[in-house]
Amino acid sequence: MSAPRLLKSYLSGRWAEGTGRAQTLVNPATEEPLAEVKSGGLDLAGALEHARKVGGPALRAMTLGERGAMLRRMTDALQAHRNELLDLAVANGGNTRGDAKFDVDGAIFTLAAYADLGKGLGEVKVLADGEGIPLARNPRFHGQHILVPRTGVAVHINAFNFPAWGLAEKAAVALLAGMPVVSKPATSSALVAHRILEVLTEAQAMPEGALSLLMGGAGDLLEHLGPFDVVAFTGSSDTGVSIRSISPVIKNSVRVNVEADSLNAAILGPDVAAGQETWDYFVKDVLRDMTQKAGQKCTAIRRVLVPSDRADRLRDDLVERLSAVTVGNPELDNVRMGPVATAGQLEDVRAGVAQLARDGRLVFGSGDVKAVGVPAGKGFFTTPVLIEVEAGAPAPSVHSREVFGPVATLVPYSGRADDAAELVGRGRGGLVSSVYSEDAAFTADVVLGIAPFHGRVFLGSAKIAEASPGPGTVLPMLVHGGPGRAGGGEELGGLRGLGFYMQRVALEGSRPVIEKIVR
Amino acid sequence: MSAPRLLKSYLSGRWAEGTGRAQTLVNPATEEPLAEVKSGGLDLAGALEHARKVGGPALRAMTLGERGAMLRRMTDALQAHRNELLDLAVANGGNTRGDAKFDVDGAIFTLAAYADLGKGLGEVKVLADGEGIPLARNPRFHGQHILVPRTGVAVHINAFNFPAWGLAEKAAVALLAGMPVVSKPATSSALVAHRILEVLTEAQAMPEGALSLLMGGAGDLLEHLGPFDVVAFTGSSDTGVSIRSISPVIKNSVRVNVEADSLNAAILGPDVAAGQETWDYFVKDVLRDMTQKAGQKCTAIRRVLVPSDRADRLRDDLVERLSAVTVGNPELDNVRMGPVATAGQLEDVRAGVAQLARDGRLVFGSGDVKAVGVPAGKGFFTTPVLIEVEAGAPAPSVHSREVFGPVATLVPYSGRADDAAELVGRGRGGLVSSVYSEDAAFTADVVLGIAPFHGRVFLGSAKIAEASPGPGTVLPMLVHGGPGRAGGGEELGGLRGLGFYMQRVALEGSRPVIEKIVR
Predict the structure, then answer these.
(1) In the structure, what pLDDT confidence band is assigned to residue B121 with cuts at 50, 70 and 90?
(2) Would residue B277 show up in a list of annotated catalytic residues for this protein?
(3) Helix crossing, A82-93 with A64-80: angle to 10°?
(4) Per-residue model confidence as pLDDT tens digits over B91-109
(5) Closest CB to A241 among B240, B251, B454
(6) Which of A23, A322, B207, B409 is most buried, judged by most C-beta within 10 A?
(7) Mean pLDDT (chain A, rounded)
(8) HSE-up of B171 (CA within 13 Å, CB side)?
(9) How far A70 CA lies from chain B's nearest CA (Å)?
(10) B440 and A255 in contact by Cβ < 8 A?
(11) Cβ–Cβ contact B258 with A under 8 A
């Protein structure tokens, strides 16, 4: 067998080959090597400066409408290569075809949403932020806030679980705001991101310097950040802490956005009885979040809060459904759940399950699995795992250890909204939690109780079951992020997301002059 | 002479005396001791927890309208003690009566502005953020962003130059948002802040736990911060870096707002000739910023950009006016400028002047001064200082060293907007810069050129001269803060300021239920 293909980085407007030790990208179902990356010897400071000096001015010369058109070209280019990207996601990401669509179509959908936003903003380069403000009795003395693009570079560091969506959701917002991007995908699953850059550069969708890609390790990339740069990171809390601790990041007040760990909760209301539509909907959403992408979604339900008097029934229903999940090679149509992304990830899941199990009792899945369609002993597979804790048990790990795999815990509670909120709050900040109930008063109490701990709260109801993708799906028009353990970040949310990449400035002075600037 | 009065802290709902080594507060004009503080032995973790557990729930139980009424009670209480506060500011802050009014009236004005905002919001506890968002063809599936108070405590660390305004502008926003505050004034000038807390607690203006005051050092205060707490700091970049580096702050994703150094620039347009109204207005604003509070304003003009062909004339005009400034005991009516705040501050100013002078030439003020109305050799006085650099000289210190005193540099430039913007940008991020011109096109070019480096841009024109307080004044309805060197923070800006103390949450679900929650 020949050596696998070496993937280049796209920096300073050209493809560049790294040097040094190779890292190998594999198919996590078969462990077959797919490609290699080397990230030594690249001029990262130069790449950042190229983005700032070439990409930034090109983007800032465009109106928001023109940047929207650029995002539309990117959308179209990816759409034209969708099948190819899906195949790569299946091969390199352990994704079933459905998982791959979730990633790739999510990327296309998010780019398209920001393309539309740009189109709607049209021929402006300066965004008005709010209305004009009279500052004195003299109506000439006037204030107006505006948003202008930051003049630095946006560094994006993405997680392994969404190589397509992670790249696109961050890049769409930064590019529409007018900031050039250097994107670093996680190495293990980077084939998809790499192909995306090939497709986009072949299509000449963006001006030179607007979007770069760094394959492999980040090296000293963040050591070169200056006062007008930003970093957006998705991944573990530990890495988030490292990024926030980098001296030039702190000294230069570099804006940092972190999406990190989250013990997302789903709360079943006391009004919902087994067999009701809402019950089935709840079970379906929990199942989807446990198995989709083998549970490797930062928004996946990790804690299932159920009124104590129906915890047994819910457990039995979940166990029954989990028993029917076929685990194996995601290329096969009958496989519902593929492997986790890497050997390290599998080890981490196993250690996490062992820790959670000490807080409760394993009710489904030992972790060990006979995966279908793969050579014996190959692949990073686990069963889904459900752990049940006793009502009232402190179970500290359940509220603090995010096991990034197909793993959830069942936590019985009293059925009171305040008790549910208290349990959810033990997670010390998360991305999204959800409440499934047809009782509007209970729903409102839970929502207001848990809102301070989250960036998003999902209100599950049979009435929206058909229209909704569930709490695990991030929509471009709603913010994504959360306080505390979740990293304190905020992305997307339609135009809100642009704020991170722009400088808000209060203009203060003569009204006619200001109105000429803002229009 | 008896020992000066020991000032207590107000923590956990009562006045508490510290232990350990005393720090002495003096009159910076006479060096007469005024009071002492000791900050050892205080239970700071307990004080934070009291704010979270007692103050937070009390504030969150109030509507925004009720919190506005609370701010109105605070406004009224301070107004009733205004003269007393002005006297303290003169005695402990080196303030002239005008300087003292700038601080104390600024505090009252800002509290009143947020009281009005609260009143306008009325009987709501949840703020809607933007409009509702249709999420699918099914109109029932709906999104709405809301803002809810964070459930932690807001720690405010203020600078020595504005003991009244600094406390009030931060507290007004946090309290209206629904977060309890622990405020730490700078020790040297803390008499005013201390008296404010006495006045407010005597008036029972706030519920228990809503507003605490820590006198003296911060000790281990910030080591106890958790995921739903925030810190807002105003002061030096170095201290800002220290705060951002504290491990629990990083690990818990504590929100940090920093207002730090800034080399604010004022640019004179090439259309403005000596003797014109705009010229005189410009000279007046530069003079005010150099001498008001002895130049100790974070927003004061530090760099004066003037077209080369009229630099001599501007220098001569400024020197003539500076010669007429009487420096001395600020209690005297004929004194225009008092001392700087401390001996350390004076030393810092002198070192800074020496550094700047190496980049150019001292054209006014040796620093040494015969201050009127004080015992010989007493007080922390300096003359105003003007330094002129040569056109085109690199003068790196002029763009990087903020001398926090009555010191400005004159920087000739070509008269082109892009050259002005380039020079301003060398400051690597600031709070506010200004352009004085009657040429709308030049003004617009400068504004857009320098906007990315600032939180505020002031457009000086003779047409608003009478209505405007100049670039050095922070208005509550406009944001205050700036990127890079200025710390990357943002305060005030009307309702915008509340965002820092609130969690933005996307609600996603059934439209009627969401609308019932938000109203």
Answers:
(1) very high
(2) no
(3) 70
(4) 999 999 999 999 999 999 9
(5) B251
(6) B409
(7) 96
(8) 34
(9) 23
(10) no
(11) yes
